[in-house]
């Protein structure tokens, strides 16, 4: 018999806030974290804005020496700070019990991109002997999971997932399975990303994937709106603590929500464009519902992938209609917090999972801001402009990535 899995801790690092309570208040107040990029010169780029985490210093958020921080890529720093928040909120003491029952599984789409850029420049400017000995351990996609296991002394399952923008959802889903099947009692899981770099911004811009609304950065991410013209590149981390229900109950943990379903699939149609009919993403949603033992009508809210791309938002809307039928237009509500945060790539699912858990806790559906002129092909209830107080017993969170990766998670109010 599968074990029950619950959420007991949440942590975020985003352009909107680097502390969960401030982050959630800002989400519910319809604020935007998008602004001009300051970390590097954008004068030669056709896009000069994004969801940059400004003034970030990990030593202000957790006990880690500055010397050690310099040995961590920015994406790892984000992930470790978010994880420290989540662990603190959970009240979990990893010095107690069997460390082999505690694990880490954090996803990232590109890993240490900043370190790759820095060392590439060093190689060609100063030669191979001047490369940093810390380059490889800093750039690895699994660097966040590895460093977290060292920091907390966790000797249980330790892995990483790289499925582009579905990375965090896949990581959370895989951690969910490890607890369900009895391999671990507690997992730190989610996603971390730091792709707001010269190469990251330039690469996505060359694909014509980014919004070029440079006259209005905070209005650039507009999921499901007729005027959307691409996503907004962002960075940060979203990490949660998952626990086996009886383990959490025994130690008196404060439970935010129960994770009950996980589905994953592939579009198998194109490396960067979604299946226009939404078939691939509909399979992931259907499998998540089946795994949760729920009927479509029982889902109250979907935190959409909703990237603000011309093709993606229509594909997701089509997939939702296939899975939810009449309920899609009669009772189901759906919103995209990427309208406020931009797209954190492999970390988006982690942040959006935090949003989903807090939505259940407070019975509030966050808004889709900037939805001024809805696309006729996107004709569902996307909670425009303002958060909505409403009954939320069951929530789905979607993440889809380049490569055709689809991952859906279902959370439920604890009963």
Provide structural commentary.
With 415 residues, the chain is an alpha/beta fold. Helices cover 33% and strands 18% of the residues. The protein is built from 13 helices and 14 strands. The strands form three sheets. A ten-stranded mixed β-sheet has the order 5-4-6-7-1-8-14-13-9-10, with helices on both faces. Strands 2-3 form a two-stranded antiparallel sheet. Strand 13 and strand 14 form a beta hairpin. The longest helix is centred in the first third of the chain and has 17 residues, at 74-90. The protein is globular and about 65 Å long. The mean pLDDT is 97.
Strand order of the largest sheet: 5-4-6-7-1-8-14-13-9-10
Shape: globular
The whole-number mean of residue pLDDT values reads 97
**Through-space gap between termini:** 19 Å
Rg value: 20 Å
Instruction: Write down how many β-strands occur, each being a DSSP E stretch of 2 or more residues.
Output: 14
Summarize the structure.
With about 425 residues, the protein is α/β, with parallel strands linked by helices.
